[in-house]
Every structure is written in structure tokens, then in C-alpha cells.
Design brief:
The protein is of the alpha/beta class. It contains twelve helices and 22 strands. β8 and β9 form a beta hairpin. Bound molecules: zinc ion (2 copies).
Length: about 475
């Protein structure tokens, strides 16, 4: 008799790297396939050269990707590996991707091309742009797109993608059903983004489909010292201290309106809502928005009605001079005006200029007197990252003050509790969190699984 089993391979007590496999008979879905980012413990620092053709076996040795049968090609596995290669594995396997953050996709390119990898149409489109500008993941393979609310089958497993809101387009959760029951995976989500109605629809649609087990992210949960129990009550309120995606343009405006110099901003450009917010801030401030060329490509593809300038970095200038522009860069430069540091310096108070951390040296060409650096969730994100202190050294060197204007992509503890109580599962599995145990359902049971253990979905329950 066929049974439905769940195995957890990653992400139970880390932020990201969620990898869960659900199997029914010989059919299997594996959801998300990211890498955990921890600059403090990563063995692969910037100095160790990666071995492109040996990546799968190196990552397996470093436990950066999971030891799972039937997903890696024979050639990519270590010779001594006891893992079953993809082509010798019975049944059908598919990988589901909730959204395009590296902690959810970082390893997906290493999966054997015979295994389909599904992502929402919006994610698929964004991925095409990311690949174009050189930000695709490693590996040479194709991806499949799926539609929100439209079920598809992996063997006898029924999968329905359900859209959520997160700080990246295309984010979705998955409703996954077998004859034994159904689970709901939230992916990453928030209520304080530009589209909270998507989370409400997610809840409504998931409840209409029905499910037994909820697998939910809990990124913002903290220890009892940092987050007292009374703050973990369900609420949809937005406390005054909570910055939302929609208030970012106003905050930019407040910080820059009296400034006599340049506005510099650092964002993570996969957050297209944030690009739109910065462009809106530019309008409110009557400052021209200048984007790095990669960000300009994303804006051109996903915010087609917006106008902006493209920053002429030293690298772009050299490429242009040597006829080494890539085709997408040539197309973009034909469609949008390019502007140099010298031109910006003539009237620096009229500009809002993007500068990502890897482009920090460009700051040396810009007049920054009287200006402000707005850190708006670009990398490096916080002082857990050694690069964060380096960024501070650079800004100190040029005497540019810094302000934080950002907001995370993850629901606040109160919002998590609200979503949980609305969904009201029989079994809750909180993960993608340093403190998953803090999220407790009102009615059903909380299960904190162990890695590698097999759990059985049976009669609306998950048992060991
Ligand atoms: Zn994540
Ligand atoms: Zn995410």
C-alpha cells in the first residue's frame, strides 16, 4: 500500500535553506533548494576558488546541499557516493521553488536536468532577467513555470501554487495533496508589503482546498528574552514603529528633502516593489533616479512605464569604449539616457543614485558632500556580515553619513500568529527560523521535526 512520507533535509533552524521532500508511493516533490548564507561560518570564503565542474561533490562534502537519492547526476556525484543517481531512481520527482531568493534557489542548478523544477510564471520571468544580467544560479538547465491556483500533478501528487506577498515578485506557497491528506507550505511571506491582499487570498484559497499539516516560515521569531510571550498575540495591526514597503518612498523623501547634496541608495534589486518605491521617491523629491545597468534591466522589464537614468560606471564606460557591451546592455542604452559621475557632480542635489556594495569604488568619483547614503536592504544587510563593517569604513573614508530605510520581507511575530490562527492547522511545523518553537497553534499540535527522520501523513495527522 502506498504511504505519504515527509523528510526534512534543511532549514529547520536556519534562515533559509528549507528543503523538504514529500513522497507518495514512488512519486516525490521536493520543495525549495536554497543555500544557507552565513558569512561567519561559510567555509567557502571569497578566497577559495570554486571548482565549477566539481561543485556538486564539493557542496555535498560541505553539507551545503542535501544528501538525497535520485536528484543528482551520476557524473556529478563523488565516486564513492552511496547516493542513487537521478537516472536510476524509480518514480517521478519534481522540485518546487517558492521564490527566487538564494536561500531558496541557490542549489537548484545542481539538480539533474531530467528532474523538472517548477516556479511561478512571475518567478520564471524574473529568472530570465536575472540570468540575462548574470545573476542566474550555477548550473546549465531549464526551468518550468506554473500558474497560481492551477493544480498540476507529479505522478499522483497534486500541487497547487498559491500566491503570497514577499519582498520579491513571484513568491508563492504550495498546497500539496495525496490520497493520504494535504500539506500547505507558506514559503516566505509578509503582511507589511505592497500586496497584503495576496496573503489574505492565500489563506482563503488554502482553507478552501483544505489541509492537515502547515509548514510555515518563522524568520522574525526571537527568544523569550527578546520577544516576550505577550507580544506573540495574533494581530493585523501595523505598529507605528513598523516600516512598510509602501512607506519607504515617504521615508526617503523625509530624509533627503533638506539635503543639499547627492542621495545614494543601496537596495536588493530583486525587490521590484522597492525599485518602484525609489523611483516614486525620486518623483516626490524632484530628483532624477539613476540606476545601475543590471537594475535598469529589471526596471525596464517589470516597471515598463517608469523612466530613469543609467549610471555610467567605470566598467560600463570601458565596455562602451571597447565595443564590449553585451546585447542587453546595448538595447538598454538605446532606450534610456546614460549619465556620468561628472554630469551628476554638476548638480548633485538633483540626483538619487544607486550604489550597490560591489560598486562601492564608484563612490570615489561622486561628490558626496552634503549628501546621504540610504541603506535600503541591499547587501551587506547587517553587522553579522563582515562586509558590513567594510561598507562603514568606505563611507567613513569619504565622509558620507548613512541612514537605514528598510523593511524585511518576513511577517512580524504578531502577523505570523494571525496567519497561523486563520489557517488553523491540525499540525504546525514552523521552520526557516532560529526560534521555531515560539510559534504555537491555538488548537492543533506543534511538531518540531528532526533532520532525516521519516514522518508519516495519516488520517489528518503527521506521525513518527
Ligand atoms: Zn527565505
Ligand atoms: Zn525570501
Amino acid at each position: 500500500m502506498n504511504q505519504t512520507t515527509l523528510i526534512f533535509h534543511g532549514g529547520l533552524r536556519t534562515i533559509g535553506g528549507t528543503i523538504v521532500s514529500l513522497q507518495y508511493g514512488e512519486d516525490r516533490v521536493i520543495f525549495d533548494f536554497g543555500l544557507v548564507y552565513n558569512p561567519q561560518t561559510n567555509i567557502l570564503d571569497a578566497q577559495i576558488k570554486l571548482r565549477e565542474s566539481a561543485k556538486t561533490r564539493d557542496y555535498l562534502t560541505l553539507a551545503m546541499i542535501p544528501h538525497i537519492d535520485g536528484i543528482y547526476s551520476k557524473a556529478s556525484l563523488p565516486k564513492s557516493s552511496s547516493l542513487i543517481p537521478a537516472n536510476q531512481f524509480p518514480g517521478e520527482t519534481a522540485v518546487l521553488i517558492s521564490h527566487l531568493h538564494l536561500d531558496h534557489i541557490g542549489g537548484m542548478g545542481l539538480i539533474d536536468p531530467s528532474i523538472p523544477i517548477y516556479m511561478s510564471k512571475d518567478s520564471y520571468n524574473l529568472y530570465q532577467t536575472l540570468a540575462l544580467i548574470g545573476e542566474g544560479v550555477d548550473g546549465d538547465r531549464t526551468y518550468e513555470s506554473c500558474e497560481y491556483n492551477q493544480a498540476f500533478f507529479v505522478g499522483n501528487i497534486k500541487v497547487t501554487p498559491l500566491q503570497v506577498d514577499h519582498d520579491i515578485p513571484g513568491a508563492c506557497g504550495f498546497h500539496i495533496e495525496t490520497p493520504d491528506g494535504a500539506i500547505l507550505y507558506t514559503g516566505d511571506l509578509r503582511l507589511h508589503g505592497s500586496h497584503p491582499e495576496r496573503v489574505e487570498s492565500f489563506i482563503t484559497n488554502a482553507k478552501a482546498l483544505g489541509f492537515d499539516v502547515l509548514i510555515m516560515e518563522g524568520t522574525t521569531l526571537r527568544s523569550e528574552d527578546e520577544l516576550p510571550e505577550e507580544l506573540l498575540v495574533a494581530s493585523t495591526d501595523f505598529p507605528k514603529t513598523l516600516i512598510t514597503e509602501n512607506t519607504i518612498p515617504t521615508l526617503f523623501t523625509e530624509l533627503l528633502q533638506d539635503k543639499k547634496g547627492i542621495g545614494i541608495f543601496n537596495i536588493y534589486h530583486r525587490n521590484v516593489d522597492r525599485i518602484a518605491g525609489v523611483i516614486q521617491a525620486g518623483r516626490l523629491l524632484n530628483r532624477k533616479v539613476v540606476l545601475e545597468i543590471g537594475t535598469a534591466q529589471i526596471a525596464s522589464d517589470f516597471l515598463p512605464d517608469e523612466t530613469f537614468y543609467i549610471y555610467e560606471s567605470e566598467m560600463l564606460r570601458q565596455r562602451q569604449a571597447n565595443n564590449k557591451l553585451e546585447n542587453w546592455q546595448t538595447r538598454l542604452l538605446a532606450a534610456f539616457p546614460i549619465i556620468s559621475a561628472e554630469e551628476i557632480n554638476n548638480n548633485s542635489h538633483e540626483y538619487l543614485v544607486q550604489n550597490s556594495y560591489d560598486q562601492s569604488l564608484e563612490l570615489f568619483d561622486l561628490h558626496t558632500e552634503g549628501g546621504l547614503y540610504l541603506h535600503a536592504d541591499g547587501v551587506p544587510l547587517g553587522d553579522y556580515d563582515p562586509a558590513f563593517h567594510n561598507l562603514e569604513r568606505i563611507l567613513n573614508l569619504i565622509g558620507l553619513p548613512k541612514a537605514f530605510v528598510g523593511t524585511g520581507g518576513h511577517a512580524t511575530p504578531q502577523h505570523l500568529q494571525y496567519i497561523l490562527e486563520k489557517l488553523d492547522p491540525n499540525v504546525l511545523i514552523p521552520l526557516h527560523s532560529f526560534h521555531p518553537e515560539r510559534l504555537k497553534p491555538k488548537r492543533g499540535k506543534q511538531l518540531l521535526p528532526q533532520y532525516g527522520k521519516t514522518y508519516l501523513l495519516q488520517r489528518g495527522d503527521l506521525i513518527e
